[in-house]
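Fold this complex.
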Amino acid sequence: MFAQRLMESYRKLVLAALAAGAGLLSAGFSFGPKYVLLHPAGPVAKSELHVFILALELMAIVAVIVLALFFYAIVRFRDTAGNTAPYTPNWHSHTLLEVSVWILPAILLLFIAIPTVKTTFSLAHLPKGKDPVVIDVTSLTWKWLFEYPKQHIATVNYAVIPANRPVLFELTADSPMNTFWVPQLGGMEYTMPNRVLPLWLEADKAGTYWGHSGQFSGVGFEKMFFNVKAVSQKSFQTWTTTTASAHPMTLAAYDRLLKQTTVGDSTYGNYPADTFPTLASGFSLTGSGMYMVMHDKKGISYIPMVGS
Amino acid sequence: MSLPLVDEHAQQLPLEFADEHESMKITGFWMFLVTDVLIFASLFSTYAVFHNSVAAGPTANQLFKMGPVLLETLLLLTSSFTIGLGIYAMRKGQVRALMAWTFLTILLGAGFVTTEIHDFVSFAALHATWHTSAFLSAFDILVGTHGAHVTFGIFWAVTLLFQLRKHGITERTARKIYTFSLYWHFLDIVWIFIFTFVYLNGKLG
Amino acid sequence: MPSFVPYLVHTLFPPGVLLPDILLIDFGLICAGIGVIVLLTKTRRWGWLWYDWLTTVDHKKIAILYLIASLVMLMRGGIDALMLRAQLALPTTHFMPASQYDEVFTTHGTIMVFFMGMPFIFALFNAVVPLMIGARDVAFPRLNAMSYWLFAFGAILFNISFVIGGSPNAGWTAYPPYTGLAFNPGPGENYYFLALIIAGMGTTMTGINFLVTTLKMRAPGMSLMKMPMFVWSTMVTSALILFAFPPLTVALAMSLFDRLFGSHFFTLARGGMPMMYVNLFWLFGHPEVYILIIPLFGVFSEVVATFSKKVLFGYPVMVASIVAIMFLAYGTWVHHFFTMGAGPAVNAFFGLSTMLIAIPTGVKIFNWIFTMWGGRIQTTTAMLYQMAFIPVFMVGGATGILLAVVPADYQLHNSYFLVAHFHNVLIGGTLFGLLSGLYYWWPKMFGMKLNETQGKWAFWLFLIGFWVTFLPQYLLGLKGMTRRIYTYPLGFGWHDLNVISTFGAFIMGAAFVVLVYNIVWSLLYGERDLTGDPWDGRTLEWSLPSPVPEYNFPRIPVVHDRDAWWAMKQKGQSLADLRPEDVHDVEMPKNSPIPFLLGASFFVLGFGMTFAWWPIAIIGFVGIILCLLFSGFDYDDHHHLKADVIRQTEATLGRLQG
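Structure:
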């Protein structure tokens, strides 16, 4: 009796959970704007969300099949008095079943695997025909330094980018590892000392998008939020020109940034030449990238490409 | 372990395999060697990654001297041969010959370790220690781990000599000598890889 | 490195604030320690403790030692988890300071993986594998005890950091360069590296031991394809351990050398490369997660067959699938760092290899369902955990596939989605499996059943608590919350879900309390198991009385069928028809103090090295050498158990004819 009651309540519970899950799914992407991963604001984040949703839907099919079989089995084959279900204690093999449980999931996975590979490779390209803005990002304990090598300006804990134009972030660290992540623009990439990893993102409308570090790096790490402000191309130009006249960052100022502190936003008109990426002696740009990087001169210009 | 020996083949097996329980220890020792292979594989891959990370320190080509390395190779390869002869003597039940060959193995091993220490000391005189660069850190830990293995092996063999003197060749001592010889041959093979991939490659590559 | 004495003074009387909770717990530990000493002295139990437990080489007793250790560690790791959750529910207050939060999430992860999950698994290995294969002990009983004491003293070294201050604080993965001296002075990370190296040696030895045991010590007639699934999973897990732990040891040793001796493997300067550590760590770390789940696949296979009263469906396929998982486990480690710039080809390859693992895992899920199909399901507590496992693990597996989708992982890496995923598989898979195994084999280990009603209470609390805790965390991941932060601004909309999650965690905390109550109550008043076969089991361990006598089998059984004991019962045979002339003298391993002393020596060495206090380290080293020497010259490691003694024991149990 007790077991039966338990089974009943379990069934009810799981049914409720299923209903709740279905509700969530149908509410789908009317999930509020705080669900930043479901509200992409750029092509990179959009394509990442796209494969995520596709995989989620295919997984839901598997879930439905497994759960249906499972609940049918545990309800029908309970050990209760008077259960009329067939009892086959020696049934241990069924060739068709055994083969299909290998083949069918494999086929289903193909539907996930193909778009995965395609998107992975396509994200390795900067979109052709668009001239990217290059921003050199250095993670420090516990702040973010953004340097614009072409515009010769630097900011701390925020970045300004033009909308509708790809931005190539070149990531390194003069600190323990962090990850550079702006959820609404696209996925993250590590910042590592002695290596430069590239990451391209693009905002397709103006707005302020928050970013954060995803890799623990010490007691001030949870303060490593930063904002990426996407503005129109014209405002971007205005901003760079006005910023260029701000106070330049000195080496002494950089050394202060190296300290283990948290700081607010700041803006610099120029910055010392060798803060990126010659932070560590003996540094050389030989790292391959999620987005491959070639270099001609130290820390000046890199051409993203696929393969090596 | 408790079963009386009923296996007819057992009588034809070498002594170290004759007792079911001792034979199992040989299987276990092979498993241990697998883990040791993986330790060295990890160290070799570290060395492969770091071999150009010389920072401001010397490169492999500048540092390595082939003379001592060839001597070390000669000593260790010979010692592998002598322990092989020791096992041969053991199979024939000649305890004194076995002890003599083991003793010679120990001497050759000691010669290897001495030469290697001398080599490391000479590097240190050139300020080429693991404080210098990632390359030297990786070099020191790879060659050093091998050297530590050889040193441990020497002390192990010394204890085996005492056990042989006390018990003679029994199922148990035979198994112990046999596992020691496996260990020793394994170190020899690792050394050949070190010689090729570290020293030859560093000098010529 | 501060030397030890000033450090201790500094720790006990720090310039800033001494955390009152740690002081309180230290006080509690000292009181408890004194209490235990007084109790042992009053009841004259010191000899019992030493001769029966600390020096034992009996696999059944070692199993109990592992079990006690892992339950204590489950409590410690669980309290850590509740502290973390409490802080996250109160982001605007400082329930604890950031530095302590960092220590607590590090110890939570490390303890749950290395000092709770693994020893619990080894407890089950030790408790039943020799019984299942018809052996009198494991292949190397003394080595088995050494494994235990290396693990135990490694765990003590790790936990002592908490008592005297300065716990490791770099996460259970301990990525450099944050673990380097430049960013992380003090002894904290030394504890982590040394404790894991010491415990890791013990684990490696366990792997060797059980691989040889399952390969060489099976009863006559038990071919590989007649082994119970749990034995298969033991064999596969042991092989995984053999190949996984060496890279970890190397990575840990190199990190330690950087800190203690100034080498430059993973430092910022002089060409060090932190990425190398990440590769070596996950070369271990990915097989490790299969080490933590494959044994439980074995448990579930035993439990589902027993309580469905039906033979396991698709046995050869089940074997093939865990062997496939074993091989694939080594081909997926890069999926832990798709976001470290490995290039699209490498990432795509490892994404696909990860998805591939889902196939054999899915096959197992289907086969368990087909095992129940056409059976008669008895909803015991052990079976309830098995049944809860299927949907929970399926969700965990599905989110695992989502994380293997490389572009999705770029977004989900290190977010709470990931945190929810691995807790989903580790709690739904590993912990549920361990508890299922605990309820299933408890009568065999202790001679009485765990109370079923209380067990079901604990089960439902665990299951509900689990979903309430981790469903919100998936959503938090979609809201962009990253792991290991101790506070967050309120504007992101993370607070409500965190409060729900914390509530769920406390439900699981309550479940643990019920579990402990269940164990204590059952030890005192539990229903004794007089038959030795309370579940109408299928495998050989149920042919023996509970608890099992020292020599396990008075006569080694001959195996003809896969479910050997079930088949014997069907044929009306019984091991109880033992005739006096069947019983012979038995050679049994002798107890030895060496394993305990060896572990203690490693502890002294590790403790000395943690504080770079070399005289202590040298004492430990000399202790190790002495233990090895003594062990090498000790030829007197067996004793004969007389046939008469066995006959008498069996007669008392009513299992001897005539």
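The interface with chain C takes residues 1-3, 24-25, 27-28, 31-32, 34-36, 38-39, 41-43, 46, 49-50, 53-57, 130-138, 140-141, 159, 162-163, 167, 172 of chain B (CB under 8 Å).
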